[in-house]
Amino acid sequence: MKYLNAQMILPEALVKELQTYVQGGYIYVPVEQEQQKRWGEVSGYRQELAQRNRQIKEEYQSGTSMEYLSEKYCLSLYAVRKIIYQK
Questions:
Q1: Burial class of residue 14, CB neighbours in 10 A (0-12, 13-18, 19+)
Q2: In whole angstroms, how large is the CA radius of gyration of the chain?
Q3: How many whole angstroms separate alpha carbon 78 and alpha carbon 46?
Q4: Tens digit of pLDDT per residue, the chain (87 long)?
Q5: Closest-CA residue to 85 (of 64, 47, 57, 48)
Q6: pTM score of the predicted model
Q7: I need a surface site. Which of 33, 40, 55, 85 has the fewest CB within 10 A?
Q8: If 0-12 CB within 10 Å is exposed, 13-18 middle and 19+ buried, where does residue 11 land?
């Protein structure tokens, strides 16, 4: 996250108002609820995991054992089962 100087981006009146609450500190301004992205959407990691999980399911359906998939993908046997049986 990049820090910005409030005086560079906000109107002077708003800076003065903020200074009544915080001086010399950091304020986090959250994204509006309807604009928030879900975990992993910005980086693309969510899609990578979905692709990996599809691959695991396909390999299992082709006859690959859960134990082998666990080793291949560096996951616990429990995690592999969870991926295979999720709807």
A1: exposed
A2: 23
A3: 20
A4: 688 899 999 999 999 999 999 998 888 888 787 777 777 777 889 899 999 999 999 999 999 999 999 999 999 999 999 999 997
A5: 57
A6: 0.57
A7: 33
A8: exposed
